[in-house]
Amino acid sequence: MSHIRSTCTCIKSQERYWYSESTMDNVKNVDKSSYNGGALLRMGLNDNKAGMQGLDKEKINKIIMEASKGSKFYENELKKDQQVNQRIEKMMQLKEKITQQQLLKAQLQVDKLVLELERSRNLSCTIVHIDMDAFYAAVEMRDNPELKEKPIAVGSMSMLSTSNYHARRFGVRAAMPGFIAKKLCPHLTIVPLNFEKYRKVSKEVKEILAEYDPHFMPMGLDEAYLNVTEHLEERLNWPEDKRRYFLNTENTTEKNKEDINIPGTVNIDGYSSSPELFEDGTSVMDDDSGQRDQSLKNVVVFGTSAEEAVKEIRFRIEQKTQLTASAGIAPNTMLAKMCSDRNKPNGQCRISPERQAVLDFIKDLPIRKVPGIGKVTEKMLKALGIVTCSELYQQRALLSLLFSEASWRSFLDISLGLGSTHLEKDGERKSMSTERTFSEISKAEDQYSLCQELCRELAQDLQKEGLKGKTVTLKLKNVNFEVKTRASTVLSSVSTEDEIFAVAKMLLGTEIDSVAPHPLRIRLMGVRVSGFLSEEEKKYQQKSIKSFLKSGKELDFSRLQPGRSNQENLTKNSEASSRGSFFDKKRAARQLNSNNLFPNESVGKQHFHGVKSSANFVEEANKVTDLQKSNVCEIFTCPVCFEEQSSSNLEEINRHVDECLAGSLVEDTVEISKNDLSRENTFNFLSHCKNENIDDCKENVTDQLAGTGQSASTSENSSGNSRDKKFTQIVSEKPHREKQPGDLIDIPRNASIKQCLSPKRNSQENAVQFGRMDHTEETSSSCSFEAREDSVLVCPVCNLEQKTTSLMSFNRHVDVCLNKGLIQELTEKDDCSAKTSDTENSIRVGGLSRGQKCTKPLQGTKRSGLTTSQSASKKAKSIDSKRTIEMFFK
DNA sequence: CGGATCGAC
DNA sequence: CTATGTCGATCCG
């Protein structure tokens, strides 16, 4: 069964249908509405032919509205839309507060960056984006000529993946449920998905592409990026016979033969082979060199230019698969992608590698066409009067004040026509998940078994790739289409059905409890595993397990209790796990908060980890020392279940311990506490430096604890210790590290536009920006924060001296103070608006030394100083969200 | 870290 | 009747 749940459904965002703004706004009085499509329909295609009527936008919208009105789905869409509207409102308020002064300053800053960007513009590459036209539909039409002249869509009554161009005239689009499509176009034929077939065709296409760029990057089944720079260089010297191709009519039906595009003949259909393929440079010869008799009649030779090469690619694709493709040729991926959209279907377009050509192309382009700018961003920008890319550029200063760093930087790149010039192979996978939609399920029993089934499938998939992850996420969508996710991170990686289910079950139980006595009424459930170990970490884990075992018998697991079978119903939470008060508290908190949106967010929790734990660490470290001195036995005692394991096979033992760990851990660590995290690190660390003086290790452990400690008080623990390289290394290597001064200019390598912007350039900038900034302009706390040991710093918030060896711990202290202070401050004052806009940032050590640069990114709009009223609304919001959670699933 | 959102296919 | 599935990234708390 699991193999049926195949991969992706091909839906391009540009081709999706959406409820347009005006549709939304007019929902209350639909009758007099004249909602024009907005983004709803973007046909712009061939005019109707052959009596294919199609529908105009108005009609389409009306039908869609009628079909949608009142549905739970639509209700939810409206709700989401309202949220976006609120975001926009916030943004507009923010905009109001911006002074001319600030704007000018921002303008200067941004323009400095523009110069830099302009200087780094790279036009030397040739990137090609290939996009199969209406892929799934085209395949189905190819394989069933009956469908050729009809409007068809691929998918099901509940969801369409794509439609052919006939159907699009009726407003039938990807991501539209089939039943609505049927209303738009009663004659619509809906063909079920057949992924195996698409995959096979896709493979054929990819074989061709690989010849032009062995490292090409496929994006799903129907499109790909190629870097043909090298190919073109070589191609220049290619003899003609390497560019010569024969028209192949063998595997086409009689009917299709007429349509096959023979050079010089008339093209039959607007989106069958177009004559354009053979325009200009392409020569067609009546070949006489005599290869074969029948097929040699038509021979084409392609030139050496980029256009010619791409025509060749498209020609070969069509010859091989009888499917057409569109293509874009440009100096970077973003442009190439937008280019391929230009002459779709079955066309191609090139942006020549000149700055002016790029800017011309960009100029009037609607921002929505840009990959990475979706429905929401479009709407937000539209609220600012930005629709085209040149407007995006004009407003660059404003945008830098309103949006997060990552966002406005990418906007800037877009408006300059900059993008990634090389194709980075996608890194290791970060997560794996499976989810399913079904008709309402509300019996807990059923929900559990469904959950288990999902875990089973996921486990199979994980094992196929040999992956184990530490975080399990449960996703639920209730019958009102509200989605929520619940995650839990455990200490040791999970991968088997039982391990995953143990966690997922608990998460599910919590959710069921939270709405009790009402049933949880859901229409979708999903399970995801993430937090995979990197290769590095795998090694460490091996090592640490080893030393772990050596010490087996005596190790005191103060917090790890021999696990009960975690198959028991975890929601009961009845059994106390003796010793550690930790879990008692955890449990109490969990139950207390089971109705709370933000459980465990209390101060108490943070306070709880601290000195005590570090004592434990030293203790453990001591024991490890002792045991390492003693001999290693052949018989290990599993430190978790305390059973003797006679095997000398490390692998086997590891597996056993892993199982035991997973068994007992998932039961007790609902969420991993930071305490536990550092404990784990300690282990790795100990084994890592096993060849060194163990006492050093212990010191380091203590230091490490201080570094990861939660409150400023931890700094006391370590103030006396001398720190060595290792300390800094460990701290800085910690994946979950807090922000440091340099980070404030943190450029998160704008991945939102991942494929299209230039990662290389950005990372270089990163390196530059990470440099120290202690000597620059004066700030409220302009100390030199090189984090030397023995520093005594004055917290700019509470004005108390803080002894600290770690910049991080100091920053953390400041954060804590800020959090305490802000609340009061905000409820009282609101006059310092100009400065408040960066309260948080400016106080932050090392921050804001470069003028008023917006450093703290915020999704959508930038956070500003909260006025009294805003603060009130903030509270209201949090109450509100609490309430919605309570009502969720009701 | 956990949760919500956006965006892509 | 009937509104997907999977993944990565960002941002906030």
TrEMBL record:
Under the heading CDD domains, the entry gives:
PolY_Pol_IV_kappa
Spell out the family assignment given in the record's similarity comment.
Belongs to the DNA polymerase type-Y family.
Q: What is its main location?
A: nucleus
Enzyme Commission number(s) from the entry? 2.7.7.7
**What the protein does?**
DNA polymerase specifically involved in DNA repair. Plays an important role in translesion synthesis, where the normal high-fidelity DNA polymerases cannot proceed and DNA synthesis stalls. Depending on the context, it inserts the correct base, but causes frequent base transitions, transversions and frameshifts. Lacks 3'-5' proofreading exonuclease activity. Forms a Schiff base with 5'-deoxyribose phosphate at abasic sites, but does not have lyase activity.
* Regions of compositional bias (Polar residues) in chain numbering: 563-580
SMART domains in alphabetical order: ZnF_Rad18
Q: What GO annotations for molecular function exist for this entry?
A: damaged DNA binding; DNA-directed DNA polymerase activity; zinc ion binding
Record's keyword terms, sorted? DNA damage, DNA repair, DNA replication, DNA synthesis, DNA-binding, DNA-directed DNA polymerase, Magnesium, Metal-binding, Mutator protein, Nucleotidyltransferase, Nucleus, Repeat, Schiff base, Transferase, Zinc, Zinc-finger
Residue stretches of biased makeup (Basic and acidic residues): 722-741
Q: Region Disordered: list its residue ranges.
A: 560-580, 708-744, 846-878
The cellular location(s) given in this protein's UniProt record come to: Nucleus
Taxonomic lineage of the native organism? Eukaryota, Metazoa, Chordata, Craniata, Vertebrata
> Which coenzymes or cofactors are required?
Mg(2+); Mn(2+)
Q: Name one GO cellular component term.
A: nucleus
Residue ranges annotated for the UBZ4-type domain, each copy included: 635-665, 792-822
> Which ranges are annotated Low complexity under compositional bias?
708-721
Q: Which residues form the UmuC domain?
A: 127-374
The record lists the catalysed reaction(s) as:
DNA(n) + a 2'-deoxyribonucleoside 5'-triphosphate = DNA(n+1) + diphosphate
Q: What is the protein's given name? A: DNA polymerase kappa
Keyword check for Repeat: yes
Instruction: Output the GO biological process annotations, alphabetical, semicolon-separated.
Output: DNA repair; DNA replication
Report the top EC class in one word.
Answer: transferase
Which superkingdom does the taxonomy of this entry point to?
Eukaryota
Species per Swiss-Prot/TrEMBL record: Gallus gallus (Chicken)
